[in-house]
Fold these 2 entries.
Entry 1:
Amino acid sequence: MQTILPVEPVICHNLINGEWVKGEGGQPDVFSPYNGKKIGEVSLPSPNQIEIALQAAAEAQVSWGKTPIKERSQILFNFRNILLRDLDQISHLKSSECGKTFAEARAGLMKGIEVLEFALSLQNLDLGGKLEVSRGVTCEYRREPLGVIANITPFNFPAMVPMWTIPICLALGNAYVWKPSDKTPLTALRIANALLEAGLPKGVFTVLHGGAFTVDAIIDHPAVKAIGFVGSTKVAKIVYQRGTQLGKRVLALGGAKNHIVLLPDANAELSGIGISDSFTGCAGQRCMAASVLLAVGDVDRHIQKVIARASSMELGKDMGALITKSQKDFLVDAIDKAEKAGAKILLDGRKAKAPAGMEDGNWIGPTILDDIQVGSEAATVELFGPILSIVRCKDISEAMKIENSVEYGNACSVFTSSGPLADRVVREASTGMVGVNIGVPVPREPFSFGGINASKFGHGDITGHHSLDFWSNVKKITTKWETQADSNWMS
Ligand code: NAD
């Protein structure tokens, strides 16, 4: 299905204490990457409005936190039904503002709903624990909410990334403050409205728009106990440092430069599909996209398959647009520089034609650069576009040395038919997530999502089981009701 852009501009206000409030800090336009046309306006809150919003969140959290998880889950069940009912509408809106194809936008929301299903299972699975540790003495642990928590999210997954945390944080009894990307505020409106319709009490969910100013005010506010961030490494570091200096809990996920190790014994057909789809999916604008192909030995027939599939992509149908014109210019410049430095251009996205009627959009085609030098920009910098840089390697040791030398640590994949060689890559990759014959190794729930190195600052993961301790407090209770007088080292 083709993306349907909004007919009228969508006005995105701030959700403060259950009401949509026009921001007093200005109202910039939002443009679609598809055709450069205005599709919305985003209203920015004033400092006073941010203060009112966060105070209301703190007040609302008190009774939400005391509501039993089974009751909280009923509202989240309603939320799931509403999202499924409105799946296509939300996906069109999401695709219009971030440039994804309709199918990609829909898949992202479905992945978010999978996290919601995990959160719904907590009422039956996350039961705490209790044990008699010495005669008449029990130890118990209980999970408690943190209070108000905030999440700051990027443009490239306007629904999936927020949905990594919204259901889990709400199920655990926190009040949730969302600062969506300033480039993609439209989806936020729909997700927040779905929560209101589901019956979430006012103030438990807050949306505040804007950039650094809003983020700083949220981090600094004493009511905000924990901060989740997903975005570039540059901003992840800023947010992590600001929050932790205030003694707050921060989990900040950053950028990536993901490698695929291609071995000559790999199935050429399947690796061609896996590698091509990994670097072209979401027009390369995802933190799990393949960026560098470490081509070990003679893998030319595999690379031909990658080229064949990538060159068959139709822009606007199989591959979406880039978020901004300046991002397109940055990518064209990066390809020019790589070419000047001696790269062979196996597929040139600079020449790709925009879809008819969308000439003012931000389009670039899949690009494959061969003979990229180790340490060059194309080999080390996160370009965030549909560009695959091929680095030729004589053996697997050289490939792993290159993989290990990059500052990021989100994902690494290997394509091979050898179990032991795959296992070597799994063991030696300096990443949080590894794929074997999978181009985009995103773990599905309940397995947690998260990288290492410059791809993540803070402890734990943002989804799945490993996120629960981050988004809650674990209270430990030691109790003695027996009246016997025996004493031991615990008495
Ligand atoms: P970004 O860092 O520019 O923006 C992320 C968020 O931070 C947005 O809400 C933005 O408004 C806000 N922000 C921007 N500048 C700020 C500042 N100086 N201080 C405080 N907040 C600020 O990222 P983006 O361009 O929206 O998203 C793309 C990046 O996100 C890529 O680097 C990509 O790899 C990364 N990403 C990472 C993951 C992951 O799981 N590791 C997932 C998705 C995207």
Note: The mean pLDDT is 96.
Entry 2:
Amino acid sequence: MSDLSLRDIKYLQGVGPQRAAVLEKELNIRSFKDLLYYFPYKYVDRSRLYYIHEIDGNMPYIQLRGQILSFETFGEGRQRRLVGHFSDGTGVVDLVWFQGLKFVEGKYKAHEPYIVFGKPTVFNGRINIAHPDIDPADELVLSNMGLQPYYNTTEKMKRSNLNSHAVEKLMKNLFAALQREVIEETLSPQLIEQHRLMPLSDALHNIHFPQNPDLLRRAQYRLKFEELFYVQLNILRYTLERRNKFRGLVFGTVGEIFHTFYEQNLPFQLTGAQKRVIKEMRRDMKSGRQMNRLLQGDVGSGKTLVALMTMLIALDNGYQACMMAPTEILANQHYETITRFLAGMPVRVELLTGNVKGKKRETILRDLVTGEVQILIGTHAVIEDTVNFSSLGLVVIDEQHRFGVAQRAKLWKKNTCPPHVLVMTATPIPRTLAMTLYGDLDVSVIDELPPGRKPIQTIHQFDNRRALLYAFIRKQLQEGRQAYIVYPLIQESEKMDIKNLEDGYLHVCEAFPEYKVSKVHGKMKAAEKDAEMQRFVENETQILVATTVIEVGVNVPNASVMVIENAERFGLSQLHQLRGRVGRGADQSYCILVTGYKLTEDTRKRIQIMVDTNDGFEIAEADLKLRGPGDLEGTQQSGVAFDLKIADIARDGQLLQYVREIAEHLLEADPQGTRPENAVVWQQLKELRKKNVNWAVIS
Ligand code: ADP
Ligand code: MG
């Protein structure tokens, strides 16, 4: 179909240079092919008639058959409107026009049979249909009407008279123009036959103009199948290529450092999940392949310890290890935790952040090159070009969604043979999404919390019950605990944020005069912020008022209350992350979601899920369903989930799994892509890789 992508949309009947410019600007449609792949977002069944007495005001588009009894005009000048009183014998609706009045009056006659199509609204007890489509009843053969497509359009398009209806007309012109041309198939005959798929040209026709719901379903299935199949094939092929290209460092032994730590320093028993995950990584690291593992574990599941023990295996094999955190505070915290864990052991651990300067920095950099520094912990600073290792064997990346693909790639170059990579995240990525975004990462899951933790209690509170809320917080503070109070971040208005936070801060100071209150937000200088956080960590202050800057990783086991103001403004995974800041000690902890009284259906659902479950995976699945993959945290850096035209990661998870297996089989049978029967498939993959920049950089 290469010629269709070369045919300029400007030359399609009904387009021309002006509309072509609008189509390009608004929808990125430049060629016949681009338009062909602009799919409807919904369909309206036009084979069915309704009766007026059935209409209830909540209906989508409907179709009626009847007569216009009379016309009437109301208002003056620009306010003028024309009303046709229309009846089918079961009732009356008002057809209303605000534009083109003369044309309408000239065209449609009273007492002729018409079929009227539009969206009914009920106003003052009367049913209206504004600007309906009208056809003479005898000209319209309903059984041929099928489903009518609806296309998304923008304001600018509408100003060029390119509404959904107009796009539909262009689509008809397009199919008329294509009549003689063959739409080339993009899947192999085997795949089509084996999986009973509709051929591409039929599927494209039926996705725009389906005769009935069954044909529409088959067309959708074929197109989704193809879309997900190529996404998966691309990822799997890429992984295979990389595996063939890079060997992995072989960590053959688990030696003295690991064992000494395990026997003498480990302050508690590992959970079963921690043990299993460490085993999985041991297996990876001695396999001769580079490890690329994503470790998912809910907040508080003990990922840091797993990371440490994995690093010790690297050390036992004569390599260095490095751990990256997204913020200064977190890097500090990891450094402290890890040096505490390793107390008394002859392991040299250093911290490298932007704040480490001068002599200290020089010493660290020098001792990294000689190999004396065995574990380096830090922020982005560790991937700067000036940081060189003697033999870097393992890189741990904590809270990965703050790091871009490019940064990860940079790390790989720190050793001639790329180091093993462990990516850790507490933002659980649903399986289907992980398969699309990180198809080449192996996934380990810590699905068990250390024993003795009491599940956090989550409570929903309306904001007019503040006295009650403050009494509750006070009681916790009196027992020696600490509390977080979080305000939302409104990205469009930083000023408003700060004001929100400042007001809240003053309010809290007034309400709790007997306690000290800290305040932290993203606009503060890093050093100032860290100092203020540190005061809270050391219990110099009992309440921390903050924006979401505390979202990731901060560990203050003594804090037992997390209050989230305007909880309706937060997404589910963010609420879950924030909640994870408490419940880290042995005491009962609480998360209080404060909202206004009036809530949308979606918000009500979100809050309810939070109240009902502490399970991060359940929450991530629910989040994906409520918001769609484009919004999900951690997906911004990879455009793949957005690029999908028809498949939906949230809803088509099963199909994704199915086509992944098909892609795996195909690759197994034909790893070099040389079998003639698969030529179509490899050719198509090549085309897609050329066009989708995102496809080439997944890692
Ligand atoms: P996260 O997975 O959120 O990064 P951390 O690694 O910060 O969790 O661990 C949370 C807390 O649980 C830490 O105080 C850690 O020392 C403790 N912890 C980790 N593993 C265990 C275990 N097996 N038994 C008891 N406590 C543990
Ligand atoms: Mg952590």
Note: Residues 631-642 have pLDDT under 50 and may be disordered.
